[in-house]
Structure formats: C-alpha cells, structure tokens
Amino acid sequence: MKDEYAEWAQTYDKFGSMAEIYESEKQFLKKMIAKYSIKSALDCACGTGPHLYFLAEQGINACGSDYSEAMLTVCKKNLSRYGVDIRLKAADFRYLESAWSESFDAVFCMRQSIAHLHTQEDIITAFKSMRSRLNERGILVMTQGTTHITLQDRFRFELVENNKNFSRVSVRDVCDGFQTYNYLDIYHNNKQDDMIIYSVHLKIILDDDYRRLLSEAGFSNIHIFGGFDMKAYDKEKSWRLIVVAEK
To answer: Helices (H) and strands (E) in the chain — how many of each?
Structure first.
C-alpha cells in the first residue's frame, strides 16, 4: 500500500484545523460513546489527529495509528500543541495486531480511509484485523462522504478552500470502481506563488459492499446510516455514508 500523503501531510490540514469536526458528527459520536459504553478506542487511520483530540476531550482512553509516518508526525505535533498526550504507532490497518496487543471498546476508521485498499481481499483482511482489536460488544465506526449521489459527474469539481493566501481545488475522476482525487493547491501570497498537485486513488465502497464485506469478516448488526442524524442510508437522498458494525 502506497503512502499517498508522504508529500503533503504538512499541508493536509488546509482542509480544516485538526480540532475541527462537524458539530453533528460530535453529537453522533457522543451517542455512540454512551450507547456502547465506550471507555477505550483505537483510531486506526488517525491522520493528523482530529478524532483523537475529540475522543480525549470526552475522557476516552484513546490510541492512534496510521500507515503514513508523515501523517503521524503531523498528528503528534498537533496533539502536543493542544496539550494532549496519546500513544501513537505506525501500523497498517490490515495487521493491527502487529502494533497493538490490547483490545478496545471501539475502533474508528474515519473519512473513507478504508478505501485506500484496492482489493476485496485486503479490505476483508483489514476488517478482520479491526475486529480482532475489539472487546466483546465492541464496535467499528467508519464514515465517508462518497455516496450514490456524490458520485454523479456534476460533483466532479469542488472548491475546497479559498482565501487571500491559498486556494485548494479538487477534481475527481471516476473509472472502473475507483475514484481519483486530484488536488490543486494554489499559493498566492507575498511569500509563495506556486501551484502543487497531489493525487489520492480510492476504491469505491458503498452500502451493499460494506454489508457483504463486514459480514465476511465476522461482524454482526451492521448499521448503515445516511448522515450523522442516524437516518437509514438512502441511495437517492443520502450525502454521507456512516457504518457502525458490532463485533
């Protein structure tokens, strides 16, 4: 698996501050924490650390890992800036047992991170590894912005960020079950006048895929929501896809 963030981890947070999570997402996660009595959690694709920061705020004993050493470096700096001390390890989420011997009440794999795996075999391997890190009654939580609606060609272009110093434009190409996001970063300020392109290649995984793959990995009670309001996923209406699967 290629580290597609090695070259742009330092600027990744231009998507938003690492402490920024949608208020609706916070409320959703609080409901999950209460419903499943979550006291410990592993964010196995922690990136720059926003969900780890939130979990720490909730008093959860949280740990974090990521495949990208570059993202972990940024994550460590971010958490330190906010005075948060969390154990971080480099780990491929297909083989979490190689990094984590303990088990957790919840495993988080947020923001479409699982889609960096490009074969069903690798995805099932990852789900089995995540399940192995769960306590009894533990849950796996995943979120993504890719849905049947957002895959429509009219949403191919997106202005992600635009201010007086910096702009980020996203152009997405969809082909043969994959989507490639090409990000154009435009610096237009007194210190830097430059354009840089980064790309991320993701497998398209939708509701029926999650049900089948998670079932094959041994999960039960697989819930697919279409938003943080926890309404059922609707192929014609949902703008977000959220998965909660019980061990």
So the answer is: 5, 11
**Spacing of C-alpha 15 from chain mean position:** 13
d(CA 181, CA 184): 10
- HSE on the CB side for 99, CA within 13 Å? 20
**Does residue 121 share a domain with residue 100?**
yes
Q: Mean pLDDT, to the nearest integer, of 48-67?
A: 96
**Residue 25 falls within a domain, yes or no?**
yes
| pLDDT tens figures, 88-143 | 999 999 999 999 999 999 999 999 999 999 999 999 999 999 999 999 999 999 99
Amino acid at 27: Q
The Cα 224–Cα 181 span in angstroms is 24
Query: What pLDDT sits at residue 242?
Result: 98
User: How far is residue 65's CA from residue 14's CA, in Å, rounded to a whole number?
Assistant: 21
Number of folded domains that form the chain: 2
CATH number of the domain that residue 45 is part of: 3.40.50.150
Give CA 154 to chain center in angstroms: 24
Instruction: Check whether residue 61 and residue 135 sit in a common domain.
Output: yes
Domain that residue 176 falls in: 153-202
Task: Name the burial class of residue 52, with classes exposed (0-12), middle (13-18) and buried (19+) by CB atoms within 10 angstroms of its CB.
Answer: buried
Distance from the Cα of residue 94 to its chain's centroid: 15
Average the pLDDT over each of 15-29, 32-46, 128-142, 215-229 and give the range with the smallest value. 15-29
Residue 161 lies in a domain: yes
pTM over 0.85: yes
